[in-house]
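Chapter review: from sequence to fold.
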Amino acid sequence: MSDKPAYIHHVNFPTTDPERTIEWYTKVFGMKYIKPKSNTKVVLMTRGNFDLHFTPVEEMDRMAPYHFAVEVEDWDGFLDHLAKLGIRHTRVITRPENNSQFCYIHDPDHTMIELVFHARRPYPPVPQPEPEPAAAAAAEGR
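The token string follows.
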């Protein structure tokens, strides 16, 4: 049994226009809308490997600097995809310590989204189980 979380299942953000949010996240990230089986007004979106939820609000509070990040498989391909959709992004930054790249976009409600790409990281990232304490000690020669 493990006391470690496996992964983040979803995050929830506000939206002032649920239909526009569904359309934008479908178009930009290929997400699918999941019709709730209850009477909730929360918009449920999935990509299969991550979910986003959006709660309808009358007006939007300022979100910056709060954001979430999405790892993309093909950096240049995804930036081309954004250009075709007319979605602007910030200047691309390369982190010299791991040669990763990132930039930011905003959804129609101005939620900030960081796009990241790690060329040397396997996709999808596979969590590795932590070794049992006895096995770790044996591997270290204790």
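Two observations follow directly from the output. The CA atoms of residues 62 and 110 lie 8 Å apart. The chain has a mean pLDDT of 86.
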